[in-house]
Amino acid sequence: MSFISNTLLYWRDVKTSGVVFGAGLSLLLSLTLCSIVSVSSYITLVLLSVTICFRIYKGILQAIQKSDEGHPFKLYLDQDVGLSEETVHKYSDCALARFNTTVIELRRLFLVEDLVDSLKFAVLMWILTYVGALFNGLTLLILGLVGMFSFPIIYEKYKVQIDHYVGMANKQVKDIIAT
After folding, report:
1. Angle between helical axes of 115-134 and 85-110 (0-180°, round to 10)
2. Which ranges does the record mark as transmembrane (predicted)?
3. Is the pLDDT of residue 4 over 80?
């Protein structure tokens, strides 16, 4: 997780961040135009075309140069790409714990264990109906991706000013709540 936050989101490695951001944004924008089946098929065809062309290119080069380098993807073909049982158990246990926590919290909210919390949840859902009327899910994902790659670097550059204005806003909110 620290790789994602330190390297990608703060643009420490510009090339990697650019590729991840560009690929993610391209995927989401493609999904606004085509179905997920079409987008998946096109991405698979592009990747397959690139690897087939590279394999043919390397085969022709080996024939011309009369070298015996072997398969160009030999290094990757020899790698183990399977998931270990421990990894699967670790992530499934984590997912199960989160799922159970979510179900327990939803049960608590829907069965009104605490009236104030259930009312807060109702207000949140009511606000989300307006958000849903303004944006569809893909638009929110696109905005989230752009924000995820923009906000950390903007905050890093303008930390002092942002902290100053957030402090002022917090003080105003506290004053309003106090009255």
Report:
1. 110
2. 20-48, 134-155
3. no
